Amino acid sequence: MQEKKRIGIECKNVIYCPKPENLDFDLHLVKVNVHYDDGTYEPKLIKKTNHQRNFWIAKRREQNYQEKKERFPIDGLDEYKTTEHELQESIKRALDMGWYNGNPNKFMNSPYLFGTDISSSAVLKEEIRRANRHVKETYNSVAVYDIETNVLTGPDGKTDQRVICSSLTFKDKICTTVLKSFLGDIRDPLQKLHAALERYLGRFVKARKIKEWDLHIFDDERDVIAFPFQRAHEWRPDFVTIWNINYDIPHILKRMELLGMNPEDVFCDPAIDKEFRYFRYTEGPARKTSNAGVTINFIPAERWHTAEFPASFYLIDSMCVYQKLRVHKGKLASYGLDFILGVEFQKEKNAEQLRIEQPDKILAEEIRKLKFPEADHIPGGTIEWHKFMQERYPVEYCVYNVFDCITVELLDEKI
Fold first, then answer.
1. Of the given ranges (35-49, 135-149, 355-369), which has the lowest mean pLDDT?
2. Sheet bearing 163-170, strands edge to edge
3. Which helix (H) or strand (E) holds 295?
4. pTM of this prediction?
5. Which uninterrupted H or E stretch holds 314?
């Protein structure tokens, strides 16, 4: 068989890792799709150290103005190259301010300085794009992650809020981790879980061509949390999305702190040396004040939370993405997942006929939060519903967790 030939790369994202104090270089982690002559491609990671970026300084003869200019003739500028970690020192030298040790804003805001308002990551991504113009761009690949936390109370009337189950789905792949103690004394839990997946989601599994359920039961909650991200690093989607990320990630971070886990060791790609690992989660603002002094409160779907860490994927809130894509249509009554699924997947007029003629077809009305007849007497989505399912039907509850991820995938694929 003839070996396929590489024809170029497509840059999906670039993450900057600052220079550690004990090293003399910084790092850019580049996620690319390597394209081949047979039309296929595969995700790869490239580590670029001490990448050189450009900046420009107005020539001395041109430095006769005070206000920053939006445009400037290129022949009136001197071009410089430097690494990101040496950028400020290089600018000071170029402006003959090498002696200055005060506030960096003094030279970074110089009206004679150009090209530094673009991040080094964006610069590198554009360089790769220009060098590979012949490569066809692909759609971003999206995996979905979700956790379930313990809501049952102990003798003291409190819940420990452990992560009892988590799932990561990515097209034809499912990874689920379950805390062994959550399943209690259930005999043959793996067999029962697989049987429940087939019973409740069998047609979805078939439609999505899922060959295997990567299912693991762990004694330790740390493994329940960390293992799906190990799979994410192996699968390398462009995004790992979570519906209402500001519940899952803060909760995971609290559990990690309690369990003595380092977030950067879970979220950062294993290929990144420990010196370059970091993890920062920033909540989006809850309100803003207008120029007229009026305070406007944001609903959860309007808050743009960010997670920064070097990996092959970005974490992103699919609820916020959904809201932003439809901001021109006004606010909806709810941004709960089940409500949005009802908005986007409305029942077909000929649903009953389709059910008879095409029994394997997935109908729009089926793409909802998974419900169980045994819990029909309790309003879905309430804390009472979760308590009932966790206490009496833990196996089915794990399948419920899986389907939450699959429905978000279906939503993403539709919109």
1. 355-369
2. 213-218, 173-179, 163-170, 142-149, 239-242, 314-317
3. strand 295-297
4. 0.91
5. strand 314-317
